[in-house]
Amino acid sequence: MTIYFNNSEEMEKVMGINDSNLPFLTSLAGAQIRVRGNQLVIDSSDSLVKDFFIHMMGLASSRTGCFSESELYMEFKSLQEEPGAGGAELAVGGRTLWPKSRSQRTYLKHLEDDQVVFAVGPAGTGKTFLAIGYALSQVLSGARQKLVLTRPVVEAGESLGFLPGDLSQKLNPYLKPLYDAMEYFIPPYQIKKMEDAGQIEISPLAYMRGRSLNRSIVILDEAQNTTRGQMKMFLTRLGEDSKAVITGDLTQIDLPHRGDSGLVHAIGLLHDIEGLSVVRFSQADIVRSRLVRAIISCYQEQEDSFLDA
Q: Domains along the chain?
């Protein structure tokens, strides 16, 4: 089969600079791929392979920059699981956000439909990234007045008291992953402008006590390290016109006892409430990189063998 790209720019986004994605795409398609100008000649008659490249051409037309291997992999898996079912796109600042797996599509649907969404699963599945992208789209469109990002401040036996500087300086490196996600969608100067205008607020979880949040979308990250009391306090801050997204990895609980986790307790206690949903990600949903997926798989196999011993 032959795939014709509209122009060299679209082709480069899919194939990578100097066709750097070609070896991976050859492996993914399970067939030899030859590049001829703006054409790909593929030694395959598999309709899924054809649908994949046509799908990628459509995505490339509205994208800035080349696709990574992990993005190519998840787009292929998405079509493989549900042929013809692409993810709904979401415009966020100057970027386009689209889900890269069935679980991510389910997650975005629940973010749209429900007031409280729990997202649990391993690192690299896009739990926080998608939540921040969706939340920014809500604030930028005027659907919500404010985005509030919060985390419990004590993890892995360390506290903010061990870090140098005042509270702002202590929090900056701790909350950097949240800024990294926001900076993918909008530039730092716009984040600062929105912070100054009160449209974005980032604070430790302890500062949420006693507040009432209206017309806001609130993201609680690293929620596996909240206590039961902290989780209850957080969930009861919501006004009727607010949404809450709670993300966490149940394999990375740093509290003395797993049962103390407010996330574990909440998803067991609250799952039957209308307007509240729990989305569970697995290793198959890891989009950060193929290497991260392999690392987590190895650790999981070791833990399983330890439990079986």
A: 2-81 (3.30.1370), 90-308 (3.40.50.300)
